[in-house]
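INFO batch 0412 | record 1 of 1 | parsing
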Amino acid sequence: MANDKDSVAYFLETYSKPLLEYVGRNVLKLMPLPIYKPRQNDVSKLEQFEEYSYGIGCYGLYYEFIAALFEELSHKPQWNKLGYYVDNPRSRFYTYLSVITVRYFLKHHPDDERSAGSDDTSSYDENERLYLMLSLKLQDKDDEVVFSEEMYQELEVARSMLKAKDARIIELACFSDLSTMEIAEQMKDEFETNPSIMSKKDVQTRISQWKNRALVRLSGIITAEKNKQQFPSLLAYAKSKKI
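INFO prediction complete | emitting tokens
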């Protein structure tokens, strides 16, 4: 946050790379782009080898999102999203970073179904807070925040208003102790290819993608103007958190 040159370079170029590869491949579904580098141990030659990256096309949007706000005169980044975590470290930092980044890129996803079940009149800021609260609670096993009985009841009502696939993935991925492969077996009809012949990494990626999108839609349902009266405990909890 102090804009130390080496720290910023490490954060953007190394620490964030796996996350942006995931976003480029599985959220935005970008084509991999070649990265040309000199041949190892022989930089004097013009011959080059190629490395392909899904995340390279994400860096511009990611920087604008994660480094904001910018000082008006100097345009120096203030890294407010990281400041939110400093003030409210309720989960592992990488979990927090992953949640807010995937949520941001889902908002820019070209798939029209991304907003299914939500209402255009809902507040984006309120939706964002609720989504982060749900995601950090439901995805981070180290989070010790305990939902009240009323909140769990409201979550169940909201889940019942989702499409069947979204409701099912939240039930299995967030409220059960099943492994990823066991979840895939229960949802194998949703896969284009039988998950038993897919790599474990590809199965995990697909399940994670479905879960994130379902949580976006769940928060959209809860914050929709026509539904808000049904979820007072969840909305009050989200508003009480400085996220």
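INFO post-check: Residues 1-87 form one domain.
INFO record closed
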